Amino acid sequence: MSINLYSQFKTNDAFMVTYKETLNGKVFKCSKCNLIHVEYKNININLSKSQFQQYADYLDTLDGAMWETQNTKAAFSRKIIIPTSDSHIRILLNKEELNELKYLFGCNECLKILKTIPEELLVATYLN
After folding, report:
1. Angle, alpha carbons 62-89-28 (nearest 5°)
2. At what angle do helices 49-61 and 95-105 cross, to 10 degrees?
3. Structure pTM?
4. Is 31 exposed, middle or buried (0-12, 13-18, 19+ CB in 10 A)?
5. Each residue's pLDDT tens digit in the chain (128 positions)?
6. Whole-angstrom Cα distance, residue 95 to residue 14?
7. Is residue 72 helix, strand or coil?
8. Residue 90 class from Cβ within 10 Å (0-12 exposed, 13-18 middle, 19+ buried)?
9. Which of 32, 85, 104, 121 would staple 14 via disulfide (CB 3.0–4.6 Å)?
10. How many Cβ atoms sit within 10 Å of the Cβ of residue 52?
């Protein structure tokens, strides 16, 4: 499966390239901070390339059906509970939301694209 750059846009003094987008979220990279941003519903995750890869690998291991079954008696309406680095904050998802987030993070092709296009070329192409 190949991924084409979905869109390019500029905000303030930064150049953005959107790699994947769904109804509820998108994955884009900013030339100013050099991070990959994941927006999903009301969640924003900002990651380096290696962190993005690690998180994508982690999401890939999650079995939504298993977690929904295991957490059937949990008080939360969404039964898939993803921990964050802050022990007070967790991401709660249902199986469909997990699959959509996996799709957005299933962006290993995005990382391949990033490696083949020099950052200065991306910025120069957009600004010219």
Report:
1. 65
2. 140
3. 0.74
4. middle
5. 333 344 555 556 667 888 888 899 999 988 888 899 999 999 999 999 899 989 999 998 999 999 999 999 999 999 999 998 899 999 999 999 999 999 899 855 555 555 554 555 444 333 33
6. 35
7. coil
8. middle
9. 32
10. 24
